[in-house]
Amino acid sequence: MTRDGITNAYHSQSLVVNPVQIPQLEAELDVITKTLGKMAAPNRHSQSGDIFNNLPVELRHEIFKLLPAGSILALKAASLAMHSAILPNDLWKRKLKSEIPRLWEVHDIDAFQSREVEDNTSKLLLDIQKKSQYTCENDDYIFGLANRRRIWGVCEQIRTRYLEKVRGISNTES
């Protein structure tokens, strides 16, 4: 078999990988779920050195609105002041739905239980973009996630076309 034949066989293999049951994703989610419900260790660090400590809660919320989901969690894990700022639940749900709708497993996780859970979930969300895309430079992608991303994109295109047709039909009937 030629080198191109091996490459083509390798890439076509990714098309038949199950996009719903993804062992690599389940392993990463297990790390998060094992930390759920654990009592957080008492914080021995002073809040006085935290630059976010002097910000009003409203301004902290504005910062959260500007960040992607993974960065929100990273910030909450890194800063006790930001960790203690309660994120509006609807903001979090909107971020997940707009940024990673195809990663429904994360939508059900209460990532704001402890800084450890926030840190683990943040690492997953920040890494998931890279691991779900096939590029020539990226050989670290997960077949199932790449397949799910591809299928989700096609479904979104079909949905858009369908809604355009339905709107066109309802406009002509009016």
From TrEMBL:
Annotated TM spans: none
SUPFAM superfamilies xref list: F-box domain (SSF81383)
InterPro entries attached to this UniProt entry: F-box-like_dom_sf, F-box_dom
Domain of life: Eukaryota
Positions of the F-box domain: 49-95
Protein name in UniProt: F-box domain-containing protein
Annotated organism of origin: Penicillium freii
